[in-house]
Structures are given as structure tokens and as C-alpha cells.
């Protein structure tokens, strides 16, 4: 098992670097908004995580290459100490990319040493934390893509992350509804593998019967919402959503644009013609909710989503490798696009499960302290990392956030 | 029944005016923040509600004394039309208090006419809306007190709303825990009387066993939290709560103050010595949550609260009459201070019940569009209006809000 | 002389009250923006000035009716102590209007006593300060009108300060240019009467030959500037002015409005049809500067203005009494509208004269500390108080300010 | 002469590149605040200037390597067209540094061609604009240093721009006062060489007698001001300055810091021990003004400074080469540190000279439109470029700006 874990560690660490290969050195520092982080910072922070929660407490001889990194690359762990101000991460031209590479190598060497020590008195805790560190880095691999996309899009040159084809065209099947009976349902992770603390404890929840759409809402369907005045009709919106529309001037999803009368979408492949059959992507929770109301439907609760997903095929290994934009749905009949297209907004506020308790110490800040004002998203996206997803996984963002690959799966009460 | 309704109408309308009697004319325009409204505006807006949703649609001959009132006194009903900007309500020196009094009288006369017409083809809808209008005005009577308190407190002279004694001193009993079994529980309003649409539909919810504190947290207990560094320890707070503490500089509840080394609390009776035995009041949801964590407990969910309240004594008629500050709890043994002291923060986000649908038209904006980012409070307060409360009543505010009479009832999992 | 001073004192104090007569009690607290003050505050602050700088230091037995007034009604005198926050002056519903009236009467009584004491060892200083206090109150009388106008205009009902006719129509003469030779000129106050410290010391300044327009720019001329794209052409504007136009969305002077296609102007008489022959009013320094550039002219320097005004007729006694809007200019031939229409923006930054020294103590904060970032305006306006003006008078506001009666007199180099 | 101009062109262009040599590639994109620009942007914008004002109008065959550069690298020329938002210049990871290098080379080649064409019908205009372009790039070379210093200082690692010694220690002489008679003085540029339009026309100005300090205020003297409560005493400050101190929390010059009780100053050589004998640097105009008031002196007017400088030695060729921090003053006796230490705040608002007219077209936006709200600084600094300075040179910044090498030379009226 330690072999498997070590392989996973190496693979994950290597993937963070290979994701960066298409970048120009100048791209590593980009941070267009406070909520995004530069590529270099992701590389450093994921390393800091292993250094802080494993090497410093468990490897007595370990010396950090630079004591200031403790502050520079701390994201939000008050239990560790002060943090360099988030909105200024893009201003850290030093350490350079090369120096961050050195930092990664040094930590990796020390980590291999720690993992080789099978007599360590804290061996169990160490292995648990390594698993967490790997999952943590996988989360940042997804953020690497969404943050980078956001920052590149600010540049009027609309640079592509990668050259290539977005994938074969298709025809999204007609929407279809799949029915579920509900009842007293088990919610939360059950099993032997890794899960985050926010997926626990498994507990019972009563659900009324419901239906879910077999696939995600498409660009073409969303365009109809816009044409029907979707962004100008307050009656379709939550009050806070409408206030956001007014303040932000939103009239379309994040990356829709028009040049010389042609409908385009900015993607990690650059600006491409917008395709009606692809899932609408980069919409906020407010937009998802308003679209659903316009469509005579609603967003699912996270319990409904989990119940349905637990009866469907699990995420395949291929998820999230080599495709940087969601693809077209297949024909109706079963739940599609659960994990490989866009995260799916639910209308559930991100809250603790009954009986939830956070871990002790700084590592307990991982999830629990964010349980207010955010909404749960379920599933996964085209830029999620392989092996990272499961039916009980709870992603969470503020309802106004749009820079994730976030889309819409409709729900409704039985007709 | 129409007699009872008419009596209720008259009583409610009269109460709005009698609440204002202690005011100086200069107080009627006070609006210290955008989220508060001036006394005069409450008087006008509650009148506008009857004019807009009853007289204009159902009394063909009705003519408004001033067409501009439609915009001036519309709070947030986009379905009715534009609204005068909320932060500027205090700048409407005209219409004068006297002119608003004329407006009230004119609408009341027309309303009496409408209610007398028992052959009106829309009679049922009219009666439903009158009930809603009465409950609406009762809500504003509570807001009148909380808004006024907030605005008066800005003045260094700390003016009292009313002269008088706050009530007899007592000794808050030691806290005690009351246990509940949970299980599949019915949640939501059940009965024949009035309720808001957000209390419907009644539905099932699975609850694990839980315990509630018999009384509210006291000033004395909260002072211990402060002394123990409560406002300086991030580990006690939700992340958004901690950010709020940093940004706002909170170090105590809204109206605590110190003068010459004496601990005071600003109340509607002016600044008085702070009493350890009274419930802590005017805390935000974030503070309530942090206190609970510090105390080794948690906030209840709204379902837990409702289940417990449904087994306790209903709100008495005397609620909310003539006391402008919460009183001391009695001895332990049953649930106390449910309705007559402070609203109680739950950790439930304000969301639609399964199967919820809002009413059609502008009147449907009453509740549904606010179902994001707010937290549910349950119970009632010393300034709630008589007859206004019930176990299924859902109040809701943002977790950073402190100007309501909001306090803390603790919950915990069975030990 | 003391008789004359006493008469002036009484007259000035009475005028502040009589200006308020047309108000509703609800108007006394209006403060639409931080830079305006409520009528009641002006009444109290001008009283505070006499109390603070005369009664407290020179009348040993004097006791203030309320110690808190020292903070509440201090405008900006750090030397006196703390100040109640300026943006919240409108929130002081207490003291009531009646209580402020009591305050005025009590201070007036004490002031009469102090002035009667011709054996006071500080008699000279007292008389100097009384003169300053009178001039100070006259300045606030003008601010009373400009602040009130601004605050009333926020109300969609557009209330009039006073009912009545704005004055006889006329035809503004064609613009004409008056030439001045310049040379080594004496600038600053010369004489025996009162002047502010910023008008001193009189000194020499070299001026090149210049020309001034005989009258102010009219609404009709300004409308041509707008039609010619004045607010859309950055090349006409100072960079900071253009940034202000972009940020504020200005497209016309402060009080121009259009209803149902009719061009109106909000005045203290309410909204009236806009007249082409009246001076354009309530423009910022940036707008004045841009208009001048568009017109192929420029704004005068304050020295040019003073030189020209010193050769023209002095302000008449009638200035500022009973007219609340600027009138039409007469025929060309001499300098008109110097003191009785609109203050005239100069392009001179407000700076100390060579050799300037502020008075010692808090009273020295009156003028000197404002000598940065503001522009000098010269002349006077229709709401200036009688006896308050002279050629050397320096008024000053930020170039973005528009709520004064500020207009445009053009200058140019000899052709 | 064309040879000399060509040499100057090449030298200037080369210097921009050699200034960048100590940088890491990651530093080229740094922009810590909107008022600073990244090194790469300076390299591109100075190139854009030649392309826009010379190649596009005068070299018919010229084709830009990328049309989007017209917008990306336009600073503030509305006459040219839109500008990429200033605060986001640091987000332009593309074009890369290498691509900007290509851009520079391509423009240089085209410029050499244009300069070689001595039969061009617009030859005179071309040569004038080339001179302006060279001076423009020299200004940006100074901004390169001040912007970079500001951006590097945000990094807690406090990176040095260059390794090396700041220069030999010395002892600042005691301050001494030099007297000037004033009188009718000629102000503005007189001569055959290059000057900016804001130095024209030369004109007369009357000056009263005055005295200037022979050297700049030192760190040691400024430290006394701080110890004496300088930042806590409102009576020393202009009102806007005091408001800035309150809002910003200033307690010392921009780059003063303390670590472990040691007084340091961040410089382009990194953080070094603060030396009492060096000039105080990176103070705002407000701080300069407050210090002067505290010292019983005042800031000079720009006319006083120019009159004095016109009688002193002109700037030496060596100015601004190889020293990145101001040095110590020599012994008293004549005006020192005029051009090679810190720019010197005057109390003169930046205004047009009598008779000033801006050039026609977009190039006229260079100076004139900034003539409001800024203060004039005179002299030059240790990072000014060789050959760039003269007695009539007018630099200008907002009084709150501190990121330039700005210091204090005191003036006073004759004693």
C-alpha cells in the first residue's frame, strides 16, 4: 500500500509541473483577481502544505530553504500563522520559478525520506496526511486551470493555454428527465478510501420524490434564456442575484464574447466559435438558479444529486486528462456528464452534516470554517484530476462565482 | 370573521401610530444605515402596501393622493415598478409627517369601504391580502423599533425612546439541557390560520437526537467568551465571520459600551448598566456561532428548533407589549424565552422547503427571492407584535446583521 | 462703533433664523451628502463658534447648556478637540430644533453681556473675534442655501424652498471683452475694515495684459457646448476633469433636468423652465475650464479678476437679499454680475500669499489649512449675504464641486 | 546635428535595456499599484511612442508587428484612441519580454530608416518629435526605477535591484540659508535646446526676497520631526494632508522600516541601515509641507527655486548614472543637491504659465491636461537620466505621492 501511495505522490507532484509546460515564464505570476492565484503560487503552496503538515512536525532534521515561505505560501491557515495578503500573490516575482522548482525538489526529497521511514512512531498520522496532501494538490491542479483561464482572458490578445482541437462535434440529445423515489436516504461517504471531513458523518436524510435532467443545460438552451430577456427580468432572480446582475452588468456567461458579429467563447484553446451543443459553462449559482426558474424547473439539492449519482456509474479513470473544455452529451437514457463536463450547482447551502466535527489543529481549517454563504456544487469537471471524484464529494463556491467550470443540471418535482 | 379581521386591521393600524407617540418630530426621518428605514417611511410603506395590493387592483374609483408615492414607498417589489433608492429614505423630508398621516387616513377610509363590500367578486382574494397586509405591518412594527434603536444610538447624546424601568431584576437560572429524540418529523405550518408562504408546504424531515438549552445565553456568559479572547481567536469563527470581525473591528455586541469604566448597554430606555442576568442581545449569526463553538456546543437547526417549540407552550398574547428589552429567564425545567426575549439564530441557511412555490405576481416577491445567503432565526422578541408568532415562523437575516433583537440558544448532540 | 457692531451681530443672528422660516420642521435635518450640512446644524454651529471662541475663553461664568455640543457642533477645529463625524450630521435628531433655538438664545444673551463689558481686559481681541464670528455666520448663511438646495433636489417631489417669481425676464447682451493692461499690481486687501487672513498680506504681482468678458456665460451658450459634444470630447478637459466626467456620468450642470421633453432647471423656487438668458450655474471648475477651452478662451487668474474688480463698482448693499437665483445681465460696456449672480471660477489654485501667516491657535485653522487642491472663486452670488463681499475676497472649493452657485466668467490674452 | 541626435537616440534606447539587466524575467511584469507600470510596459510604451507619433504618420510603408499594441501600450493619449486599463498592465503576460524586444528592434530599424531620410518633406517636425521621444523615454527610465522600487518593496523578501555599496559615508554639513533678492524675474526656459511645452513661454514674475536652505533635509532631521509627534499633530498639516495621514496610517517616509529594533531603509540595494546624514527621501508633498511648518520654515515656490537654480551650477553630465540612492551633502556655502539627490517639492500648484498653449493633436496631451491638483517638484534625482535636467524643468505629482525620489528643500522669508 505504501508503494501505491508513493506512486500517487510522485504522479501528483509530476502532474503539477507538466500542467505548466505550455506556459511562458511570464505567465507564472498572473493573478487577475484576488480569488485567483498565480501558477507559481500553486506550485509553491502545495509544496508548503507537505512542508508544514508533514516535514516540520515529523521530520526533525528538516530545514526550510527559506523561513519566509511559511508566511508567503500559507493560504488561509490561521493556526499556522500570518499569511501574505491574498490579492498580492501576483506581486511575488521572487522566489523565481526556478527557485520554486528547487523548493519542490527539496521537499520531495525530504518527503521520500519520511515515507521510507516505516518505523516512525507517527506513521499512521503521516500516511493520513500524505493522502490529504495529495488530494489537496489535486484540488489545486483544477484551480490552476480555472485561475489561469481567468487571468489570461483579461489580455485582449486572448492567449491560448494550449493549441489543439477541442474535440469532435456532436449533437446534444434532447433533454430527458430521470425519476427518483426518494425516501429515507443515506448521505455522506461510505467506504474505506479517502474522503474529506465535510463528507462525514454518513447520515440519514428524508427526500421527497424528484426528477433530474439526464444531461447538462447547453449553450443553445442558455442562449434562448438570454434572448427571452433573462438578464433583464428581476422576477426570475433571487434578490441577491439580481443585485449582482445590476452591479456587475452581466449579460452572458463569463467567457462568452462577440467579435464582428460572431458568437465566440474564450476557452483554454483560445477564442473559438461558440457551439450550441456544448454545455453552458462558467455561470454563477445565481444564473443557474434564474435559468432553472425560467425553464420551469429548479436546481437539485445536494442530497438529491448524491442519491442519484450513487445509483449511476462512478467516475471513470479517464476523467480530467487532456481535455480542457467540456464535451457534448450523448443520447438520453441515463445520467450523463456527472463528472467530466462541468460542476453542477445545487441549491444547497454549504453546511455541516449532522454530527460533523472538524479535525483538531490547523488542518481542521481545511473545510469546516467555510460553511457559510457558499453553495454546494456536485460532480466534477473536464479539468478535474483523475481519481479525485466520487458521489459524495462536496465542492463549494459563493453563488456569485463564475470562474470555475460550473454548469447547470436541472431538477424538478414529479409532474 | 370579517368583524374580527376589521378589528385586527384597525388595531394594527392604530398601533403603528401609537408606537410613534414618544418620538420628537425630528426623529421621524432618521435613517442611520441603508438597512434601516425612518419611522415615517414605515408609516408610509405599510400604507402603500394596502394601496398597491388592495385599493389599486380592487377599488376602481380609488385615487392616490400623490402618484409619486408609488415609487417613493415601494420597498423592493420589482413587479410594481421602480423604487426610490433605499439608502436615501432619510432624505425625504417631504411628504411631511402630517402629510403621511393624511395618506394613512385616506387609505384607511378606502380600506374600510372595500372591506364593507361583501359582494365584491374578488372577496376571497381581498380577505387573504388584508391578512397579509396586517401581518406585513406587524413585521414593520418590529422593524420600527430595531431601526429606530440603531439610528438613535448614533447620536452621542444616546437619546432614550422612552422613559421608564426596564423591568424587575432576577437571577437567570443555571443553564440546563432538554433532550429531544428526533426521528421523521413534520416541519412547516399546519393549521387553519394565517402563515407566510415560506412556512409551506408542511413536509417530513429526518432529525437525529439533539438537546437544546432551556434558556438563552446571558450577558454574563457572553462576557466570559470575550474575556477568554473570543474576538481575537480565529479558530472559533467561520471564515466569513472572522473576515467580518477584522473588517468591522467588533469586540462586543452591538450596543455594549463603556463610560468611565462602567459597563453599559444602550437600550430603548437609554444607556443603562449592563446586567449579567439578561440575555445577550444584538449579536450577529457569526458571533452566535463562534460563542457556541467556544462553549462546546453549536447552534440548532431550524428543524430542531421547530420540533422542540411545537412541543412547548405557544406564544402568549402578551408578547411584545410594553417591554422594550428582553427580561430575565426563570428557573430551568422547560423551554423558556422562546418568543418574548430575542430571536434565536439557527445554523440553517434560509432555503425553500421541498415543494415550495411563491405566489404569482409582485406579491410573490414577499419571501421567495430572499432565499440565499441569509440565516433563519426562530422565535420572536420583546418588540414582536402580539399575535404575530408561531412555532413555524421563519425570520431571516444576513449572518452579519446585528440590529435585530437577536440572541443565542445553544444546541448540542446528546452526550 | 460698538453700537454698529452690536447691530450687525443682532441682524446677522436674526437673518439666520429668518432664512429658515419657509422650512418644514422635517427639513431642518436634511443632509444629502457629507459636504452639505443640515439647516439645524448651521444654526447650532454658528452659535458654537461664538460660544467656543468668545464665551468660553472670555466670559468666566458662562456655562454651556450641554457639554456634548462642544463635539457635536465643531466643524473642523482640531485645536478645539474631536468632531462628530461630518457625514452623520443629518442623524442628530436631538437636540431638536427647539432646543437649538434655546441654545442660540442663551448664547446671544451671554454675548450681549460680553459686548456690554467695555472694561474687559481683552476687549480688542473680543471685538476682532466678534467681527470674525459675524462674517463666519454670513458664510454659513450662503451655505445654508446651497446645502439645502442640494438636499431638497434629491427628493423626486422637487420641493420648492419658497414660492414666488424668479424675477423679470430679459435678454442677455452679446458678450463683450474688456481689456486690462496688467503690470506690477497690488493684490490683497487694503483698508481698515474686516478681511479674512487669506486676503493678506497685500503684495505685488506681475500681470501680463489680459481681457475679461463683461458678463457671465449663459445657459444658452452652455447648451451649445453640450450640443457640440462638450461632455464627450476628452481633448477639452483637464485629465482629472475627464476622469470625473467618466466616473460621475455628468452630462449637464448639476440642476439641469428634462421632464417630458421640456428643459427645466431645479431652483430654490422649484423646477422651472430653463432660460437661455440666465447665467449657467452650478458648474464645477472642471466644466468651467472645459467650456472656456471650447470657447477659445480660458479662466482668469484670481489676480486678473481682482485687478479688474478693483477698478469696477464695489458690491452694492442690496446683494443677496431676497433673490434666490441669478438674474439676467444688462448690456455690455462694463463688468457686470461680479457679485450678485454666481461665484466665478478662476484657474488659480488656492495658495498662501507671499508672507502669509495664519493666526495662532484653533482660530488659525479657519483658512490656512485648506490651501491645497482647491481652486479660488471670486465675486459673490445671489445668495451671498449683504455686506459680505469685496474685490479681495477669496472663496475656494474643489474643482469637482458643483453645489455652490458657481458660474463662468471668461478671460483671454489680448488678440 | 543629425549625427548627434542619432547617437542620442541609440544611447537612450540602449540605456532602457541595460537598466533591465539586473532583473529576473519574473520582475518584468510587476505592478504593485495602478500608478506604477511594469518594466516590460515601459519598454513597450516608449517604443509605442516612436511608432505612434513618428512611424505611423511619417513612414508610409511601416506595418506594426501587432495592431493590438496601439491600445495595449497607449498610456493616456485619448487623441490616439482607447487605452488598456492602467491598473491591469501587470496582467499582460503576453507579449512576452522576448516579443517586446522584437518590437523594440523592429521600431528601431524603422526609426533609423526614417532618420536617414533627409529629404522627407516633414523633416523638421520629425526631428522635433524625435527629440521629444528621446526625452519621453528618459522620463520613463526614471519611472522604471521608482516603479520597480515600489513593486519590489511589496515582497517581504525585500529583493535588491542591484548588489553593491550605496556610496561612501559622510557627514551632512549643518544647514545654512542662502539669501536671494527677488524682484521682477524671468521664469521659464530660455535657450536653443530642448524643453517641454510646460516650461514656456518665458515670462516675468515678481518675487519678494527669500532664503533657501543650502542642502536637503536629512533623515536625522526628519526623525526629530517624528519624535516630536509630527504625524500626530494636526496643527502641522494641511487639512487634506491630515486626512491622508489618517486614512493611510503613515508614520514615516515610504521606505522606512524597523526589524528587530534596527532602523532600516529599503533602497534599490535592498534593506540597509538607515543613515542620519542622507537626505530624507520618498516623502509626499504633504509631509514636506508639514515638516517645513514644524521647522519654522516653508516650501519654496517654483519661481523661487528656479531663480536660485539659474544662478547656480547647471546639472553635471554625471547625474543619474550608476547611483541608485541619494548621497550625502557637502559643506555649506552654495546650493547643493539640486539635481542629483531628490526632487524637491515646491508649494506651487502645477498651472499653466501665462500665455501657455499646448501643442495641437494627441501630442498636446503630454503636459497641459495634467495642470490641476498636482504640485511642482524641481531639480532632479539620483535616478534621473543624464542630460535630462535644467533649471526650468517642471516635474509634477500629486501631493500624496511618495514613490518618487522626492525630498525637502526648505525656504523662508528673510529673518
UniProtKB/TrEMBL annotation, chains A, B, C, D:
Database matches in SUPFAM superfamilies: C-type lectin-like (SSF56436), DinB/YfiT-like putative metalloenzymes (SSF109854)
Keyword vocabulary terms for this entry: Iron, Oxidoreductase
Residue ranges of every copy of the Sulfatase-modifying factor enzyme-like domain listed in the record: 179-311
Pathway field: Amino-acid biosynthesis; ergothioneine biosynthesis
Annotated ranges, domain DinB-like: 8-142
Top-rank taxon: Bacteria
PANTHER family in the record: HERCYNINE OXYGENASE, SULFATASE MODIFYING FACTOR 1, 2
Protein name listed in UniProt: Ergothioneine biosynthesis protein EgtB
Amino acid at each position: 500500500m505504501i508503494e501505491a501511495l508513493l506512486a500517487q505522490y510522485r504522479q501528483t507532484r509530476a502532474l503539477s509541473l507538466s500542467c505548466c509546460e505550455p506556459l511562458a515564464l511570464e505567465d507564472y505570476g498572473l493573478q487577475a483577481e484576488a480569488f485567483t492565484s498565480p501558477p507559481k503560487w500553486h506550485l509553491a503552496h502545495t509544496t508548503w502544505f507537505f512542508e508544514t503538515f508533514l516535514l516540520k512536525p515529523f521530520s526533525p532534521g528538516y530545514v526550510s530553504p527559506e523561513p519566509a515561505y511559511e508566511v508567503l505560501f500559507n493560504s488561509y491557515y490561521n493556526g499556522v500563522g500570518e499569511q501574505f495578503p491574498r490579492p498580492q500573490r501576483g506581486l511575488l516575482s521572487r522566489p523565481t520559478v526556478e527557485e520554486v522548482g528547487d523548493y519542490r525538489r527539496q521537499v520531495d526529497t525530504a518527503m521520500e525520506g519520511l515515507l521510507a521511514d516505516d518505523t516512525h512512531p507517527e506513521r499512521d498520522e503521516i500516511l493520513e496526511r500524505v493522502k490529504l496532501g495529495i488530494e489537496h494538490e489535486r484540488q489545486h491542479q483544477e484551480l490552476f486551470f480555472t485561475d489561469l483561464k481567468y487571468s489570461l482572458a483579461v489580455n485582449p490578445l486572448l492567449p491560448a493555454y494550449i493549441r489543439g482541437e477541442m474535440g469532435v462535434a456532436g449533437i446534444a440529445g434532447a433533454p430527458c428527465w430521470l425519476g427518483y423515489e426518494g425516501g429515507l436516504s443515506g448521505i455522506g461517504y461510505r467506504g474505506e478510501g479517502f474522503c474529506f471531513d465535510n463528507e462525514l458523518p454518513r447520515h440519514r436524510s428524508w427526500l421527497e420524490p424528484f426528477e433530474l435532467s439526464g444531461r447538462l443545460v447547453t449553450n443553445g438552451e442558455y442562449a434562448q434564456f438570454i434572448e427571452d430577456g433573462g438578464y433583464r427580468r428581476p422576477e426570475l432572480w433571487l434578490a441577491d442575484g439580481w443585485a449582482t446582475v445590476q452591479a456587475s452588468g452581466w449579460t452572458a456567461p463569463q467567457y462568452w464574447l462577440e467579435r464582428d458579429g460572431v458568437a465566440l467563447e474564450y476557452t483554454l484553446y483560445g477564442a473559438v466559435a461558440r457551439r450550441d451543443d456544448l454545455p453552458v459553462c462558467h455561470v454563477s449559482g445565481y444564473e443557474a438558479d434564474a435559468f432553472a426558474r425560467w425553464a420551469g424547473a429548479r436546481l437539485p439539492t445536494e442530497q438529491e444529486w448524491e442519491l442519484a449519482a450513487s445509483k449511476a456509474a462512478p467516475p471513470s479513470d479517464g476523467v480530467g486528462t487532456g481535455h480542457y473544455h467540456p464535451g457534448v452529451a450523448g443520447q438520453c437514457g441515463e445520467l450523463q456528464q456527472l463528472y467530466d463536463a462541468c460542476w453542477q450547482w445545487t441549491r444547497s447551502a454549504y453546511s455541516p452534516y449532522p454530527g460533523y466535527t472538524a479535525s483538531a489543529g490547523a488542518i481542521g481549517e481545511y473545510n469546516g470554517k467555510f460553511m457559510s454563504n457558499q453553495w454546494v456544487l456536485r460532480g466534477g469537471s473536464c479539468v478535474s484530476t483523475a481519481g479525485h471524484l466520487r458521489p459524495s464529494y462536496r465542492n463549494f463556491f459563493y453563488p456569485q462565482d463564475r470562474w470555475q467550470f460550473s454548469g447547470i443540471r436541472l431538477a424538478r418535482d414529479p409532474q
